[in-house]
Protein backbone atom coordinates (compact mmCIF):
# COMPACT_ATOMS: atom_id res chain seq x y z
CA UNK A 1 0.00 0.00 0.00
CA UNK A 2 1.29 3.40 -0.95
CA UNK A 3 2.43 5.38 2.06
CA UNK A 4 2.27 9.11 2.40
CA UNK A 5 4.60 10.99 4.72
CA UNK A 6 3.58 14.27 6.25
CA UNK A 7 4.57 16.45 9.16
CA UNK A 8 2.17 16.70 12.07
CA UNK A 9 2.49 19.90 14.09
CA UNK A 10 0.81 19.81 17.46
CA UNK A 11 0.98 22.57 20.02
CA UNK A 12 1.03 21.25 23.58
CA UNK A 13 0.43 23.80 26.30
CA UNK A 14 2.73 23.02 29.16
CA UNK A 15 2.35 23.80 32.82
CA UNK A 16 5.05 23.97 35.44
CA UNK A 17 6.90 20.73 36.08
CA UNK A 18 5.67 20.53 39.67
CA UNK A 19 2.03 20.16 38.64
CA UNK A 20 2.84 17.33 36.28
CA UNK A 21 4.94 15.42 38.76
CA UNK A 22 2.43 14.96 41.56
CA UNK A 23 2.63 11.25 40.87
CA UNK A 24 5.98 9.83 41.93
CA UNK A 25 6.60 6.31 40.53
CA UNK A 26 8.52 5.25 43.63
CA UNK A 27 5.63 5.98 45.99
CA UNK A 28 2.89 3.55 46.97
CA UNK A 29 -0.75 4.30 46.06
CA UNK A 30 -1.39 5.34 49.66
CA UNK A 31 1.59 7.71 49.67
CA UNK A 32 0.46 9.17 46.34
CA UNK A 33 -3.02 9.90 47.64
CA UNK A 34 -1.79 11.32 50.93
CA UNK A 35 0.79 13.47 49.12
CA UNK A 36 -1.97 14.85 46.88
CA UNK A 37 -3.97 15.83 49.96
CA UNK A 38 -6.98 13.68 49.09
CA UNK A 39 -6.73 11.48 52.18
CA UNK A 40 -4.63 11.67 55.32
CA UNK A 41 -2.90 9.45 57.82
CA UNK A 42 -3.85 9.22 61.48
CA UNK A 43 -1.78 11.11 64.09
CA UNK A 44 0.40 8.05 64.73
CA UNK A 45 1.28 7.81 61.03
CA UNK A 46 -0.92 4.80 60.26
CA UNK A 47 -3.22 4.85 57.24
CA UNK A 48 -5.50 2.03 58.44
CA UNK A 49 -6.24 0.73 54.96
CA UNK A 50 -8.71 -1.86 56.25
CA UNK A 51 -10.92 0.65 58.05
CA UNK A 52 -14.24 1.41 56.38
CA UNK A 53 -15.31 4.75 54.94
CA UNK A 54 -18.52 6.48 55.96
CA UNK A 55 -20.71 8.83 53.95
CA UNK A 56 -19.28 12.01 55.44
CA UNK A 57 -15.72 10.90 54.66
CA UNK A 58 -16.69 10.09 51.08
CA UNK A 59 -18.25 13.53 50.68
CA UNK A 60 -15.01 15.17 51.85
CA UNK A 61 -12.92 13.02 49.46
CA UNK A 62 -15.16 13.84 46.47
CA UNK A 63 -15.02 17.59 47.11
CA UNK A 64 -11.23 17.49 47.35
CA UNK A 65 -10.73 15.21 44.34
CA UNK A 66 -13.02 17.01 41.91
CA UNK A 67 -12.63 20.53 43.39
CA UNK A 68 -16.40 20.73 43.78
CA UNK A 69 -16.13 23.67 46.16
CA UNK A 70 -15.02 25.90 43.29
CA UNK A 71 -18.52 25.73 41.83
CA UNK A 72 -20.16 27.24 44.88
CA UNK A 73 -20.29 30.55 46.70
CA UNK A 74 -20.06 30.96 50.45
CA UNK A 75 -23.20 33.10 50.24
CA UNK A 76 -25.42 30.29 48.98
CA UNK A 77 -28.33 29.33 51.18
CA UNK A 78 -27.56 26.11 53.03
CA UNK A 79 -29.89 23.14 52.85
CA UNK A 80 -31.40 22.01 56.16
CA UNK A 81 -30.01 18.58 57.09
CA UNK A 82 -31.45 17.10 60.26
CA UNK A 83 -28.41 15.04 61.27
CA UNK A 84 -25.62 17.32 59.95
CA UNK A 85 -25.45 20.53 61.99
CA UNK A 86 -23.33 23.47 60.87
CA UNK A 87 -20.74 22.44 63.45
CA UNK A 88 -20.16 19.07 61.76
CA UNK A 89 -16.61 18.72 60.37
CA UNK A 90 -17.95 17.76 56.90
CA UNK A 91 -20.91 20.16 56.86
CA UNK A 92 -19.82 22.16 53.79
CA UNK A 93 -18.69 19.05 51.90
CA UNK A 94 -22.05 17.38 52.47
CA UNK A 95 -23.88 20.53 51.38
CA UNK A 96 -21.86 20.56 48.16
CA UNK A 97 -22.36 16.91 47.17
CA UNK A 98 -26.09 17.22 47.85
CA UNK A 99 -26.38 20.41 45.79
CA UNK A 100 -24.50 18.82 42.91
CA UNK A 101 -26.66 15.68 43.24
CA UNK A 102 -23.58 13.50 43.45
CA UNK A 103 -24.88 12.05 46.69
CA UNK A 104 -28.45 11.99 47.97
CA UNK A 105 -30.00 12.13 51.39
CA UNK A 106 -32.51 9.90 53.08
CA UNK A 107 -36.06 10.52 54.26
CA UNK A 108 -36.89 13.18 56.82
CA UNK A 109 -34.01 15.38 55.67
CA UNK A 110 -31.27 13.10 56.93
CA UNK A 111 -27.87 12.31 55.38
CA UNK A 112 -26.61 9.62 57.79
CA UNK A 113 -23.02 10.91 57.77
CA UNK A 114 -21.66 8.11 59.96
CA UNK A 115 -23.18 5.28 57.94
CA UNK A 116 -20.54 3.12 56.32
CA UNK A 117 -20.72 2.93 52.55
CA UNK A 118 -20.59 -0.17 50.34
CA UNK A 119 -18.20 -0.68 47.46
CA UNK A 120 -21.07 -0.47 44.98
CA UNK A 121 -22.18 2.85 46.45
CA UNK A 122 -18.68 4.31 46.64
CA UNK A 123 -17.55 3.29 43.15
CA UNK A 124 -20.86 4.34 41.60
CA UNK A 125 -20.83 7.72 43.33
CA UNK A 126 -17.20 8.29 42.36
CA UNK A 127 -18.08 7.54 38.73
CA UNK A 128 -21.03 9.94 38.92
CA UNK A 129 -18.75 12.68 40.22
CA UNK A 130 -16.33 12.12 37.34
CA UNK A 131 -19.05 11.62 34.72
CA UNK A 132 -20.88 8.44 33.82
CA UNK A 133 -20.61 6.96 30.34
CA UNK A 134 -24.05 6.72 28.77
CA UNK A 135 -23.60 3.07 27.89
CA UNK A 136 -26.59 1.30 26.32
CA UNK A 137 -27.95 -1.58 28.36
CA UNK A 138 -26.26 -4.15 26.12
CA UNK A 139 -22.84 -2.59 26.78
CA UNK A 140 -23.52 -2.48 30.52
CA UNK A 141 -24.30 -6.20 30.46
CA UNK A 142 -21.12 -6.91 28.52
CA UNK A 143 -18.97 -4.90 30.95
CA UNK A 144 -20.49 -6.63 33.98
CA UNK A 145 -20.66 -10.14 32.48
CA UNK A 146 -17.15 -11.34 33.51
CA UNK A 147 -17.90 -10.86 37.21
CA UNK A 148 -19.74 -13.66 38.99
CA UNK A 149 -21.20 -11.37 41.64
CA UNK A 150 -22.34 -8.59 39.28
CA UNK A 151 -25.97 -9.49 40.02
CA UNK A 152 -25.47 -8.10 43.53
CA UNK A 153 -25.00 -4.57 42.17
CA UNK A 154 -28.12 -2.49 42.92
CA UNK A 155 -30.06 -1.54 39.80
CA UNK A 156 -29.50 2.19 40.36
CA UNK A 157 -25.72 1.67 40.39
CA UNK A 158 -25.29 -0.60 37.34
CA UNK A 159 -24.46 2.10 34.77
CA UNK A 160 -22.13 3.93 37.14
CA UNK A 161 -20.44 0.68 38.19
CA UNK A 162 -19.97 -0.23 34.52
CA UNK A 163 -18.18 3.10 34.08
CA UNK A 164 -15.96 2.48 37.12
CA UNK A 165 -15.08 -1.02 35.92
CA UNK A 166 -14.44 0.16 32.37
CA UNK A 167 -12.09 2.83 33.70
CA UNK A 168 -10.29 0.29 35.90
CA UNK A 169 -11.14 2.08 39.14
CA UNK A 170 -12.36 -1.06 40.91
CA UNK A 171 -9.83 -3.18 42.78
CA UNK A 172 -11.18 -6.69 42.35
CA UNK A 173 -11.26 -9.24 45.14
CA UNK A 174 -10.39 -12.94 44.92
CA UNK A 175 -11.66 -14.77 41.83
CA UNK A 176 -12.15 -11.40 40.09
CA UNK A 177 -15.16 -10.54 42.21
CA UNK A 178 -16.45 -7.00 42.61
CA UNK A 179 -17.79 -7.56 46.15
CA UNK A 180 -20.32 -4.75 45.63
CA UNK A 181 -22.03 -5.18 49.00
CA UNK A 182 -18.83 -5.30 51.05
CA UNK A 183 -17.85 -2.14 52.95
CA UNK A 184 -15.63 0.32 51.11
CA UNK A 185 -12.29 0.52 52.88
CA UNK A 186 -9.73 3.28 52.99
CA UNK A 187 -7.40 1.03 51.01
CA UNK A 188 -10.06 0.55 48.32
CA UNK A 189 -10.49 4.31 48.09
CA UNK A 190 -6.74 4.93 47.89
CA UNK A 191 -6.51 2.47 44.98
CA UNK A 192 -9.20 4.34 43.05
CA UNK A 193 -7.84 7.79 43.82
CA UNK A 194 -4.32 6.80 42.83
CA UNK A 195 -5.51 5.63 39.41
CA UNK A 196 -7.54 8.79 38.98
CA UNK A 197 -4.49 10.92 39.78
CA UNK A 198 -2.44 9.03 37.21
CA UNK A 199 -5.08 9.65 34.55
CA UNK A 200 -5.27 13.32 35.45
CA UNK A 201 -1.50 13.65 35.35
CA UNK A 202 -1.45 12.03 31.94
CA UNK A 203 -4.12 14.24 30.39
CA UNK A 204 -3.51 17.52 32.25
CA UNK A 205 -1.40 18.85 29.38
CA UNK A 206 -4.55 19.24 27.29
CA UNK A 207 -6.14 21.84 29.54
CA UNK A 208 -3.23 24.02 30.51
CA UNK A 209 -3.02 27.83 30.24
CA UNK A 210 -1.51 29.42 27.15
CA UNK A 211 2.01 29.62 28.56
CA UNK A 212 5.30 27.94 27.75
CA UNK A 213 3.97 26.49 24.53
CA UNK A 214 6.04 23.78 22.94
CA UNK A 215 5.51 22.94 19.29
CA UNK A 216 6.40 19.39 18.44
CA UNK A 217 7.04 18.39 14.85
CA UNK A 218 6.82 14.70 14.17
CA UNK A 219 6.92 12.69 11.00
CA UNK A 220 4.18 10.12 10.78
CA UNK A 221 3.27 7.42 8.31
CA UNK A 222 -0.30 7.64 7.05
CA UNK A 223 -2.31 5.01 5.27
CA UNK A 224 -5.97 4.10 4.95
CA UNK A 225 -5.98 2.74 8.49
CA UNK A 226 -4.96 6.03 10.06
CA UNK A 227 -1.73 6.68 11.90
CA UNK A 228 -0.35 6.83 15.40
CA UNK A 229 2.75 8.48 16.78
CA UNK A 230 4.21 8.84 20.28
CA UNK A 231 4.34 12.39 21.53
CA UNK A 232 6.85 13.29 24.23
CA UNK A 233 8.35 16.51 25.45
CA UNK A 234 11.82 17.33 24.22
CA UNK A 235 12.92 18.43 27.68
CA UNK A 236 10.39 17.58 30.40
CA UNK A 237 9.33 14.09 31.58
CA UNK A 238 5.73 14.44 30.44
CA UNK A 239 3.44 11.41 30.35
CA UNK A 240 3.38 9.75 26.95
CA UNK A 241 0.47 10.62 24.68
CA UNK A 242 -0.50 8.93 21.45
CA UNK A 243 -2.14 10.77 18.57
CA UNK A 244 -4.34 8.79 16.21
CA UNK A 245 -6.57 9.84 13.38
CA UNK A 246 -8.62 8.65 10.44
CA UNK A 247 -9.64 12.19 9.59
CA UNK A 248 -8.36 15.74 9.66
CA UNK A 249 -8.98 15.87 13.42
CA UNK A 250 -6.48 13.81 15.41
CA UNK A 251 -7.45 12.46 18.80
CA UNK A 252 -5.23 11.97 21.81
CA UNK A 253 -5.40 8.86 23.93
CA UNK A 254 -3.78 8.50 27.32
CA UNK A 255 -0.85 6.17 27.81
CA UNK A 256 -3.14 3.30 28.80
CA UNK A 257 -4.92 3.58 25.44
CA UNK A 258 -8.39 2.97 26.83
CA UNK A 259 -9.93 6.41 26.89
CA UNK A 260 -9.99 9.07 24.19
CA UNK A 261 -9.02 12.54 25.24
CA UNK A 262 -10.61 15.62 23.64
CA UNK A 263 -9.99 16.57 20.02
CA UNK A 264 -7.18 18.99 19.42
Would you kindly provide a brief summary of this structure?
30% of the residues lie in helices and 13% in strands. By secondary structure, it is α+β, with helices and mostly antiparallel strands.
Characterization of this structure:
By secondary structure, this protein is of the alpha+beta class. The protein has one domain (21-205). 30% of the residues lie in helices and 13% in strands. The protein contains eight helices and six strands; from the N terminus they run E-H-H-H-H-H-H-H-H-E-E-E-E-E. It has helices at residues 17-20, 29-35, 55-66, 91-99, 119-130, 137-144, 158-167, 186-203, and strands at 4-12, 214-222, 227-231, 241-245, 251-253, 260-263. The strands form two sheets. Strands 3-4-5-6 form a four-stranded antiparallel sheet, with no helix packed on it. The longest helix has 18 residues, at 186-203. The protein is globular, with a radius of gyration of 21 Å.
Keyword list:
disordered C terminus, alpha+beta, 264 residues, 30% helix, globular, four-stranded antiparallel beta sheet, two-stranded antiparallel ribbon
Give me the number of helical elements. Answer: 8
Helix content: 25-40%
Question: What's the alpha carbon Rg, rounded to whole Å?
Answer: 21 Å
Strand order of the largest sheet: 3-4-5-6
Amino acid sequence: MERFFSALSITLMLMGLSALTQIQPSRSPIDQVVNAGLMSRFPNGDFRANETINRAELARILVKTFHLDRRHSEYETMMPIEDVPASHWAYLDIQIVLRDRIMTGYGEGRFRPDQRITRAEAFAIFAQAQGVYQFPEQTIREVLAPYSDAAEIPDWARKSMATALYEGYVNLKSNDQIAPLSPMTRGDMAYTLNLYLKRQNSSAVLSLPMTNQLRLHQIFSQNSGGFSIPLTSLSDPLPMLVATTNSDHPKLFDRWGNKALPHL
